[in-house]
Amino acid sequence: MQILFDGDPGIDDALAILTLLREPVDVLAMSAVVGNVPVETGFRNLRDLVALAGREDIPVFRGASRPLVRDYVFDPMVHGVDGLGGAKLQPSRAALQEEHAAIALARLLAAASEPVTWVATGPLTNVAMVLGLDPSLVRKVRRLVVMGGSTLRGNVTPAAEFNVYVDAEAWRAVLASGIRPVMVGLNVTHMVGMRAEDFAAAEQIDTPVGQVAGTMLAYYRRVSTEQDWGAPKLHDVVALLGAVSPELLEVRPAFVDVETGSSLTYGMTVADDRAAADRCNCDVAVDVDADAVKRRMLRALRSY
Ligand code: RIB
Ligand code: CA
């Protein structure tokens, strides 16, 4: 399986990245998008995480610095100012890719010998830009799996999940492209929370990767406790492993649209699973094997 990864690392993105890089797949490229942190921070974090994983052979690209339409507002509360909860990583020594992610990803998709699996764990700004550059590239994407949205309530507002809230226009553009994404929303990622035994297992990993993961998880746990959010959720790890191993998710076809006009419900995803088959534009995840996701992540973290 050939994979493209786009994200906004971010602690759960970082855990997804460290998991991905131990899976038996061919990662063609990785890209950073504005979201949890400004894109320059996310780009640095992505490069450094790839270096920590010993995979500086994988090209890493910098993408959109702002959403398609709305202004970007950085809120460091959830992931910290550095995006990784204070975890200290050695700076990558890989050559700095100057090409914009949208250009690079369009080039790589056009050249791909077979359709690729694309995972997006941040706002869809880069994905929308690529498909805007060349709409025919939909045919070179085997599956687009996105962490975002919700069939229930949001997490930034009662209506909107963060990745959609940052750039709902990008979500609309991607849904309208005909790519038919797999939507991994809060309704399933909230089923995958880190319990005490999961933290204990992660804390026993006495390696450089284990130390970075431990620092990030400790920060994530502290914020979740302070905000009374319950167990810290592995949102992006669910989407990543759902892309690599589709059997971990149960999905249902639906017609999904996104609110972009209302100040009250901007970023709300509305999924109609009663839509006629020929109107369905998305496969919405409705269940997940939560224990398998956590086992796979911990196995990956131990394997470095
Ligand atoms: O709402 C959760 C999503 O927003 C995750 O991707 C997390 O990393 C943040 O980007
Ligand atoms: Ca993310």
Describe what this molecule looks like in 3D:
By secondary structure, the protein is α/β, with parallel strands linked by helices. It has one domain: Inosine-uridine Nucleoside N-ribohydrolase, Chain A. Helix content is 37%, strand content 17%. The chain is built from eleven helices and nine strands. It has helices at 11-20, 39-52, 101-111, 125-133, 162-166, 168-176, 186-189, 196-203, 208-226, 235-244, 290-302, and strands spanning 2-7, 26-32, 60-62, 116-120, 141-147, 182-184, 249-258, 269-272, 282-288. The protein has a nine-stranded mixed sheet with strand order 3-2-1-4-5-6-9-7-8, with helices on both faces. Strand 4, helix 4 and strand 5 form a beta-alpha-beta unit. Helix 1 (11-20) packs antiparallel against helix 9 (208-226), helix 1 (11-20) packs across helix 11 and helix 4 (125-133) crosses helix 6 (168-176). The mean pLDDT is 98. Bound molecules: alpha-D-ribofuranose and calcium ion. Calcium ion is lined by residues 7-8, 10, 12-13, 35-36, 121-122, 236. Alpha-D-ribofuranose binds at residues 8, 10, 12-13, 35-36, 121-122, 147, 155, 161-163, 235-236.
